[in-house]
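Suppose you are handed a protein chain with no further information: no name, no annotation, nothing but its sequence. What can you learn? This example shows the usual starting point.
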Amino acid sequence: MSVAPFQTSANERVERKPRHLGRFALPVYSWLVIAYLVLPIAFMIIFSFNKVFHGFQQVSFTWNGFTTQWYREWNNVPGLSSSFWLSIRLALISMAISTVIGTLLAIALVRYRPDKFRGKGVIEQMLFVNIAAPEIVMGASLLGLFVTFNIARGFLTLVLAHVMFSIAYVAVTVRARLAGFDRSLEEAAHDLGAGPLSTFRLVTLPLIMPGVLAGALMAFALSIDDFVTSNFVGGTSVPFPVYIYGASRVGTHPQVFVFGAVIFAIGITFALLSLVIARKDS
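A reasonable first move is to predict its three-dimensional structure. Written in structure tokens, the prediction is:
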């Protein structure tokens, strides 16, 4: 009679150990992943305040002291600020166009059955092919397309290329939001006399707005971060990532870290705004 309790307590100790280890290991693993993602950005922001003592103003990874010189002289590097503002304009324009097209495409894919939407299956597959295709394949194919149709490479070709690869991400994101959408709310609006456009503006769009904002932020991030496709189709227009690649062969100016910190701050601001809007909607 006295053996059974002893065996039970021993088994409980054996079972408790893995559970306790799992509760400890998972948070540690999560924080290590976060540190892996955040540390490079933190170093970039820190070294944007680092002094440079030698003649050629080049990034130094030896801490020489704190300075705000590079933030005051952000416009002293020829071509850097113009490429930055070009990337910002490009990202905003491609984000706006791809968000509108991707959102409407997601609604069509969710609302209509294949018998009413011919080619629905083909479009769905093309969306995932667009996401899975390597950037170098996309860039080379777009370059061949523009050369074939004798389209001069520049800002227009950059916009067309960025909109093309951003639409799929917006459509997939908004479609996930529409998966749990309650159609009875739209039907109630129709019963109360609202037309299709009024129903979409007052009922559908506010409910799917978190998904639309998430897709828009993703499109903005993809555009401002793109190098491979932009390098193929940019021509005389040089976006920020392409400029950084060319400048890194000679030496990277400290102002590059300043612009990188600004881009990171813009992304964080958009992310916080989307969280605030999502909480208000909920």
